[in-house]
Amino acid sequence: MTDPNLDLQESGWEELRREARKIEGDLDVKLSSYAKLGARFTQGDTGSPTVGSSRSWKSMEMEIQSLLEKLLDINDAMSRCAASAASTTSVTQKLARHRDILHEFTQVYLLSTL
Fold first, then answer.
1. Max alpha carbon distance in the chain (Å)?
2. Could you tell me how far CA 71 lies from the centroid of its own chain?
3. SS3 assignment, position 114
4. CA angle 75-105-71, nearest 5°?
5. Pair 14, 79: CB distance under 8 Å
6. What is the per-residue DSSP string for 13-57?
7. Structural domain spans, the chain
8. What is the pLDDT of residue 2?
9. How far is Cα 84 from Cα 14, in angstroms, rounded to an integer?
10. Given its phi and psi angles, is residue 93 left (phi above 0), alpha (psi -120 to 50 degrees) or beta?
11. pLDDT 10s per residue in the chain (114 long)?
């Protein structure tokens, strides 16, 4: 017989991982768009930013910041979930990978805002 608490923790872990992967995908798309928008401004293709493009730039920055915060929260929840379960090496490695991805996205975003 399996421990119902363990089953609940495993389903919670998988749900958190699904959510993390979705947000990671969204961040990848947003950061790519953000970089392209920045490249257009720095190359001078569009001249100086217009009021509308400046608004969309700020909106995109806020969306990226919000996604980074959500991903941080999910990583924290995954850490708590892993700590409360008898986590395996596989879980520990997956958690470390999600933390690395968050760190990479944060660095990309911070570098693109300079």
1. 68
2. 4
3. coil
4. 25
5. no
6. HHHHHHHHHHHHHHHHHHHHHHHHHHHHHHHTTT-SPPHHHHHHH
7. 4-112
8. 47
9. 14
10. alpha
11. 444 455 546 778 899 999 999 999 999 999 998 888 777 666 555 555 555 567 777 899 999 999 999 999 999 999 998 887 766 888 889 999 999 999 999 999 998 877
State the burial class of residue 23 (Cβ atoms within 10 Å of its Cβ: 0-12, 13-18, 19+): buried
Q: What type of residue is 66? A: S
Angle at 48 between CA 46 and CA 49, to 5 degrees: 85
Q: Which two tokens stand for residue 36?
A: 């392209």
The sign of the torsion formed by the CA atoms of 52, 55, 60, 63 equals negative
CB proximity list for 40: less than 8 A, separation 6 or greater: 46
